[in-house]
Write a structure and sequence with these properties.
By secondary structure, the chain is α/β, with parallel strands linked by helices. It folds into two domains: 265 residues, Aldehyde Dehydrogenase, Chain A, domain 1, CATH 3.40.605; 187 residues, 3-Layer(aba) Sandwich (Aldehyde Dehydrogenase, Chain A, domain 2), CATH 3.40.309. The longest helix has 22 residues. The N and C termini lie far apart (85 Å).
Length: 493
Amino acid sequence: MAKSVKNNTIKLKFDSSRNLAPAPESKSAAKINERYELFINGEFQKPLSKKYFATINPATEEKLSEVAEANTSDVNKAVEAARTAYEKVWKKTSPKERAKYIYRIARMVQERARELAIIESLDGGKPIRESRDFDVPTAANHFFYYAGWADKLEYAFPNRNAEPLGVAGQIIPWNFPLLMAAWKIAPALATGNTVVLKPAEGTPLTALKLAEIIQEAGLPPGVVNIITGAGETGAAIVNHPDINKIAFTGSTNVGKIIQKAIAGTNKKATLELGGKAANIIFDDAPLDQAVEGVVNGIFFNQGHVCCAGSRLFVQESVAKTVIQKLKDRMESLIVGDPLDKNTDIGAINSKEQLGIINNYIGIGQKEGAEMYQSSCAIPKKGFFCRPTIFTGVAQSSRIAQEEIFGPVLTIQTFRTEDEVIEKANNTPFGLSAGVWTDKGSKIFNMTTKLRAGVVWANTYNKFDPTSPFGGYKESGYGREGGLHGLTPYLNLV
């Protein structure tokens, strides 16, 4: 008679009933002015438009500050300051001296890291853990990295004469305001260009804090100009005849408008646009690790990430296990106050974006996909969304084809490598992808066949200033970061 075997497997319970004591970050370390002017020619100046707009905290819907709205005349003024600084000062400054300025900015970002992290979370809604541990350190690292390149351009491009373009117009999005500012300003300065930068109208505060740092660092007036405003301000930068280079990160639709606007001009451009990244789990992958990667891939920064792993492909044999593990892990996620160190998912950046996300959730349900949302509590005030997954998603479904830009994941299954490659590439976008497998040969096969600018293997959403980033197809063109990030700011002769 066979003996019964006792099952000693311990089932972990991930339920939201556990109550963690609040661990809020104090706001006292962050100073936010009641009003911010335009940063032009090394000083803060009142806008010629005489107009201001409010920036709000998406977690509380409270007004944080008033910010100047630049019109065409203000843009002209900023470009003129940048041109004068370029011709008279910056292009004549030795690479070694340029490096010193960039390095100084990096150190000052580090010194004011806590303040910058708090303001980033207040203005953008992202959890303080992310602002503190990722955004601010990575921003500082970009300045450090490109400070190192400033006096080594002759080694970077042997037998070529690397000449700066002139004035760079830079437009950045609302999901990583400080990091995107560093991402763009640092290589521009290292290569000898001057800058006119416009942060997103919804999240301008850390860019304006960066302006304070630049001023304190003693950067020559006009080398970096930071002006705030909405779409019209950005259009004035793009269309300005005295700008030599456009660097834009944002939506694909706006990227197409920029392409049309600069067609027929001699302006260089780098466009980093939307994405609908495939995150692929094979049956030989370390499943628990993969689930963590999926969570990080789609719920990091509330899904407000252009390279978010928003499409999950799971091999059929492990699909049931992975989906259950993912649901269990989702139940442990805390949605709430961005300044609370316990928070995993903060506030959606704006009321408008929350409306877009909720609309797509409704579309997914109408299309027949099965929805699962975590049972966590969400604050009654502010813009919040529960982490959401859809199973039984068709390849043609809108939620599988269109960028949602929120904490919404679609899940599909596959049997073979060829099948998943076909499905993963079947999208207008090509920014990023993730592959989870124990086989190195499989990783190399996938990376050569996936039409994505960045492919992560057994990890996701890992960034480094030494590594180039950019996309294919409707995800844009050009590369930012690494040695590749210098090229768009140079004429190589």
